[in-house]
Amino acid sequence: MAQIRQSLGSRSIVLIGLMGAGKTAVGRRLANWLDLSFTDADTEIEAAAGQSIKEIFAEHGEAYFRDGERKVIARLLEGGPQVLATGGGAYMNPETRAAIKAHGISIWLKADLRVLLKRVSRRDHRPLLAVGDPETVMKTLMAERNPVYAEADLIVESHEVPHDVIVGAVADALAAKLGCGAMPAPKRRRKKVQ
Ligand code: S3P
């Protein structure tokens, strides 16, 4: 754990992937285990705009949201080390991808269609899923985005297992990438998550 933190230096661990991939839930737990701060880019965009993402899309449109998303993530990446969860579309922006490459280690949390749909069906705050049949939208996004997400430094499968299991897989992948020794399971080491 200390080795991972040390090898990171000022870089951020950046979680990317589709809506429902588990970026926020896994990111929060990973940060807790690594004793790093956790930042959710969507929450920061909402704070900067003083509006929810749903409201930003409704009042100003997607292009305006994307512009704000790019600026906020560029600013957040200056604040590493941290665990940073990004919205599903963020990594599609070439400038954001380059900034993540320069200031972070990207991890694609990769989940299959069934898992993603199950997870996103629990809440209705995502504007992209409100415009059509969620399965059709998600399939289209997977086709468009998965080849770009595949550019991430690391890819970790986000199966239907407790989040701590995925945190363990992320920790193993990070340790291998950064050349750190074998990791103790996060479950045994982590502090209580709120
Ligand atoms: C989006 C994903 C959302 C949010 C916005 C757009 C996307 O974040 O940024 O609704 O384009 O996939 P999550 O991936 O955290 O749901």
Give your account of this protein's structure.
The protein is of the alpha/beta class. It has ten helices and five strands. The chain has helices at residues 2-8, 23-34, 41-49, 53-60, 62-76, 94-103, 113-120, 134-149, 163-178, 186-189; strands at 12-16, 38-40, 83-85, 104-110, 154-157. The protein has a five-stranded parallel beta sheet. The protein is globular, with a radius of gyration of 16 Å. Shikimate-3-phosphate (S3P) binds at residues 19, 23, 42, 53, 87-89, 126-128.
Note the main sheet: 5 strands, parallel
Low-confidence stretches: none
* Cα-atom radius of gyration: 16 Å
How many strand units?
A: 5
* Gross geometry: globular
Strand content: 5-15%
- Helix percentage: 40-55%
Structural class: alpha/beta
For the biggest β-sheet, the strand order reads 2-3-1-4-5
Q: What is the N-to-C succession of helices and strands?
A: HEHEHHHEHEHHEHH
Distance between the termini: 21 Å
Count every helix, treating DSSP H or I runs of 4 or more residues as helices. 10
Compile the SSE list and pairings.
Elements: H1 2-8, E1 12-16, H2 23-34, E2 38-40, H3 41-49, H4 53-60, H5 62-76, E3 83-85, H6 94-103, E4 104-110, H7 113-120, H8 134-149, E5 154-157, H9 163-178, H10 186-189
Parallel strand pairs: 1-3, 1-4, 2-3, 4-5
Helix pairs in contact: 2-9, 3-5, 4-5
The protein binds shikimate-3-phosphate (S3P).
Residues 19, 23, 42, 53, 87-89, 126-128 line the site of shikimate-3-phosphate.
